[in-house]
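Technical note accompanying the year-one report. For the benefit of new consortium partners, we illustrate the data format agreed upon in the data management plan: each record pairs a sequence with a structure-token string. No post-processing was applied to the example shown here.
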Amino acid sequence: MRAALLPPDILPLFSDSFVRSCDLYEEYVFRLTLTVFRRAGLEAVCAKPVTTDEAIEQAGFVADVARVPIDWVLRTLSSRSVLATIGEGPAARYRLRGGLPELDAVSVREEQERHDPSALPSYAIATLAAEHYPDVWRGRTTGESVLFGPDTIGAWFDYFSNANVLYAISNAIGAIASGAALPDAGGAILELGGGLGSGAEALLSRLRAQGRAARVSSYRFTEISLPFLRRGQKSLTAGFPEIPCAFARLDMNQPFALGGVQPGAYALVHGVNTLHVATDLAFTLGEVRTALAPGGAIVISECVRPFPGQPVYVELVFNLLEAFREPVLVPAWRPNGGFLTPEQWTAALEANGFCDVRIVPDIAVIRDVYPSFVVAAVVASKA
């Protein structure tokens, strides 16, 4: 079945072992969600049917912070038949079907460790998020401080790594799609939100293996976080001395010129798990379009929501962050924060000056068979 759904160059990434790790991680997040639900006092609140807003009010949470993640918790538990759902949309009410299941998350982590310990950095980040949810909802702290504080930043070094099998898949698919989108003659490449450099490492390694690295006239690596930028620079400078790299701090919510990006200079602009947190996606896509040379390509390697409104398990972590929860909304193609569906990404790109949009692999086909398939690259050309 996988061979019928996935392109030949992507198929080897989705081995039985990788799929098993994905299934285990999804189950781990579900069990953490049960724990959060119980610790936050939502078990008593949902003894009777409540809307998301009613649950927030009765539990005493800060609405602006809690609305998106609590709605996600309720929909997630509903999708697993822990809660019954009455109605649809914002007016939907949620009620416990019976007793809250007693499911141990630790046993799933132990199974993952036996199966493939390379995935454990993802477990560490999910555990960190779950531990702090009630305090964030009550306004005692912020998601940004608990996830990216001085005591926790090191966990992200392990998470944003090609050694983490659950994160490396985004880099690998992005590298495949970016390599295909780069013209045969090569050209300049701009990376947005490069993080610690693992996405660049995947792409440049692929081009090197294909004998195409010399065709990269320049590689501009950008990142807003200075610690991440410095670490990425150190890694890429050592790993790819033959490629002319430049490194700059860039906020994708500000004019790219502030980060030294020249208009019309790039054959390829790409980012891994980056553009979904753009404050104003239309603005950022406009800046990307300006940066691209005529006929240039954008490649966005993303977690893609298979169906509208479907909770995605990695949202347990990122719903803590204001940038993830609260972008500028556009009803036609940006109806929610965070992850978008294939149709929403297509509409967003076409509305902002791009054409020939394609999703690699084609989640619109895969989702009917495997609705938890959430990773793909969105590719388009400058119109």
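Partners are asked to follow this layout when depositing records. The mean pLDDT is 96.
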